[in-house]
Amino acid sequence: MAGKGKGKALVVLGAIAVAVFALVYFGISLTSNIGKTQTQITSEDAAKQLDKLYKNITVTTAEQIKGQIDLDPVAVGDSLPDISKFPVSVTNTTDHFVEIFSSTEKSGTGMNGWLNEVATDFNKSNIAMNGKPVSVKIRNIASGTATDYIRSGKYVPDAFTPSNELWGEIVKAQGIPTQLVSKRLVGNVAGIVTNKTKYDELVNKYGSLNVKTITDAIADNELAMGYTDPFASSTGLNFLVAALGTFDSSDLLGEKAVQGFEKFQANVPFIASTTLQMRDAAKSGMLDAFILEYQTYVNAPDLKGSYVFTPFGVRHDSPLYALGDLPQDKLDIIKKFAEFVEQDRYQRLAEEKGFNGLDDYNSELNAVDGSVLSSAQKLWKEKKDGNKPIAAVFVADVSGSMNGEPLNQLKDSLLTGQKYLGRDNSIGFVSYSSNVSINLPIGKYDANQQSMFVGAINSLQASGGTATFDGIVVAMKMLQDELALHPDVRPLIFVLSDGETNEGHSLKDIRGIIENFKIPVYTIGYNANIQALESISSINEAASINADTEDVVYKISNLLNVQM
Fold it and tell me: If DSSP codes are grouped into helix, strand and coil, which group holds residue 303?
């Protein structure tokens, strides 16, 4: 009996011990996750979850096939879509007219539609020259993109009014006949928009805030600031030149300027493809400051109260240029339109829309030759990553819905975009349908890797379902393995897809892992506005692009030029 009692006691004690261990285990698990959302997980948990998800995916390794690589430099005009992709915001009303490329802040809608309203009135004014009624045609197109069309010769309008004079200098340096008709159609200024708390902190230390103190603060890691792509953005190009000038105003491309820029750029956390992407990053708390035009700033109630605007660089006064060897009658129309715009009532209208503010600000920069500006853009491309190489995995949708033209465009866009990738970076390639294939393991982007990348792209065939998030899981696993070998690389993922996921894992399954690893996931949607892909990109402040088959090559080329 005593033995049986002792045995029962041991069983009870054993049960208690199990219960205690279970309580401790689950208690630790429970308390370790207090205050976390379902998607917020530790690095250790993220790694475990990634391994678990990866093991549940059917992954194959494709045969390595080399392709023929093209070593010719990128021809800008080759990737540009037909000019019809950029809308005509004011249509000419007569047979005798001029077409004007206009920057988007003045030829859009609402507060950004000032020039459209003026041009519409001009066309209604029954103005005749040499006995013939005349009118203007306005095309809404960003200054950097417009410059690409003009300098490549793909499409040259009669006139061009960019945001600032820097683009006019670049066009002129390409040998295109350029005549400055008006130095200013409407007043505007570029500026650094700084969180008020951080602004006060920097003023207390430096005495004032300007590009010099901003670059010093960034170089010393005291300020998190982002700016936009200087190949596409007027404000971004202006800031690049102004920043170089703070290091050596006498030689923007000299050794002193380059060294100063490298130190500064190493601490820039964010380069945005668009102003919208940059503003979203600021709203998330990622940035203390960013760059913006004054007209946008004054029309943004969420900025005026909590951010301080500090002007910099050249003014953004919308100069007007006549382009090419125009006949005199066209040149006369352009000059007449410039005079029409200068009328008091249209300048008052501009003020109502936020223009013509800060008129007492004078440009801080002297005139910069267009060839120097183009060289500064190339310098930025070489130095923007602060000598920190990138490891990127491209994830391509080859499901059945991509068959035909969508897959052909995906191939064309990657074959064109791969010229922007850079020899110092490492590249991998994954494709997916119902399952996932590693078409190219991550490797240094030398001529051999480039050849295999081209071969992998050319070998793609479409069929099956769409397991987008499985493809992203495989890309993240490849990058985590790469980071274990080379911890200093900056990881990126580019996803190209045309539709919603219908197989495999979900966004909910992988969101926490993406958040924890902080890998930016750039997404390109083909002929679709894919909300799930946009949600992925927003997790770590990456860009999401919606493109159709006509302009996807250009959009992807621009994205890779900025991020790679």
Answer: helix
The strand ranges marked E within 153-215 are 159-161, 178-182, 189-195
- Structure token pair of residue 87: 């809308």
Tokens 């064109």 correspond to 416
pLDDT of 76: 74
Q: Which residue has the tokens 């109260």?
A: 305
Question: What is the number of alpha carbons within 13 Å of residue 362 lying toward its C-beta?
Answer: 2
- Bridge partners of 272, per DSSP, are 228
| Contact of 253 with 375, CB cutoff 8 Å | yes
| Nearest one of 313, 229, 238 to 271, comparing CA atoms | 229
Q: Which residues contact 384 (CB under 8 A, 6 or more apart)?
A: 265, 271
Other Cβ atoms within 10 Å of 244 Cβ, number: 28
Tens digits of residue pLDDT in 354-363? 999 999 999 8
Residue 173, classified by CB atoms within 10 Å of its CB into exposed (0-12), middle (13-18) or buried (19+), is middle
Asked if 389 contacts 489 with a C-beta cutoff of 8 angstroms, the reply is yes
3-class secondary structure, 47: helix
Q: With H, G, I as helix, E, B as strand and everything else as coil, classify residue 554.
A: helix
Angle between helices 234-247 and 211-219 (to 10 degrees): 80
- How far is the C-alpha of 502 from the C-alpha of 196, rounded, in Å? 46
The Cα 397–Cα 436 span in angstroms is 10
In angstroms, the CA 564 to CA 561 distance is: 6
The Cα–Cα gap between 90 and 85 comes to 15
Q: Residue 415, Cβ neighbours under 10 Å: how many? A: 17
Q: How far is CA 92 from CA 85, 219, 322, 339, 362, in A?
A: 18, 50, 17, 18, 35
Inter-helix orientation angle 165-173/143-152, to 10°: 10
Q: Where are the alpha helices (DSSP H) in 266-402?
A: 275-283, 294-298, 301-304, 328-341, 344-352, 370-383
Query: What is the value of pTM for the model shown?
Result: 0.81
Specify the pLDDT at position 387: 66
